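Recall that a protein's primary structure is simply its ordered list of amino acids. Everything else, from secondary elements to tertiary packing, is in principle encoded there. The following example makes that idea concrete.
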Amino acid sequence: MKKLSLQWRLTLMAAGLMAAACLLLNAFISSSAIMRINEIETYMIEVAPNGQDAFLLDTASLYPNLQEQIQKTTEAFGIQSILATAAVILLAGAFTYFLAGRALAPLRQFSGRIEKIQAQNLSELLEIPGTDDEVAKLTRSFNGMLERLDNAFRVQRQFSANAAHELRTPLAVMRTNLDVLKKRKNPTAGEYAETLQSVSEQTERLSHLVKMLLEMTELETAPRNDRVCLSALIEEVICDLAQVADEKKVTLCQEPGNAEVTGSDQLLYRAVYNLVENAIKYNRPNGSVTVGVHREDGCALLRVEDTGIGIAEENQTDIFEPFVRVDKSRSRAMGGAGLGLALVRDIAKKHGGSVRVVKSSDRGTVIEMKFPYCVKRDESKA
């Protein structure tokens, strides 16, 4: 059955159902008819001549060949019933095959159109039939899937192009510096040192970029079942970035408050780390970065507030896209790969949350992450 087409399967199932019904009906009618025919053998006729006593006359005495005739009639009736049943089943099966083919024609057309879809024409949606049946619903669902795939492929292509560009730039710089050094006949120690410094910086940039790319690919596989205390996590991040803040002459502060969320401790640490590190990088000398967490409407809100240069309103959404930099020259000088905030956004989404710029001006920026709050057992009992 699995190797047959859907049309044949429907035909065979319908024919089998009709065959069972016809055979049962034929058996019932045949048995009833045979019982009634057999009763003729014992049928008695009452004869009452005029003015005389009545007497019973056996039909067998009147028709000596009655039993043989009944036998032939019964056999003929059975054969005719079987032939009629077979004819009905065959005709019904052929009619079912024809109707199944008509009913499945839209599916065959749908299948033919699907076979023509390639990665290059995902944006070409299928025409939805004018009916409101299952095929129309399937076509709508398939078109929705095509749109999602097209968006995913577009994002992937853009991401791959940006990643290739980011990887190619430091490699080109290193190659140029090395070629220049190679062409010099007697390079000095200072020229060697300058080239080595440039190669070292570009290597560090490549290493940072590859690390960020690997972290983004590990989002799907990382387990997210830890109970994470955000207050302790913020404290850990501030301790780890204390030296970076001292070098930038930026003060790190943690506001009182706490909340727990369910997720990956490692991924949440990376998200908060990236936000705080970003706030330090783009801050002013003697500025500050304040991190706090509190509960609001069943959600845990983590805020990072800085006194930095701010983000233009038209860029406040784009900064969470991969490889987007508001000031490319400053980002490259500070070692940014354009993936830190994109990673923050993806981590927030994987935890059922979100991240957004609450407000920003030339006096500073406030970025907020929102997560579903993890209710403690004692709180749920209360």
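Residues 377-382 have pLDDT under 50 and may be disordered. The chain has three domains: 6-116, 134-217, 226-381.
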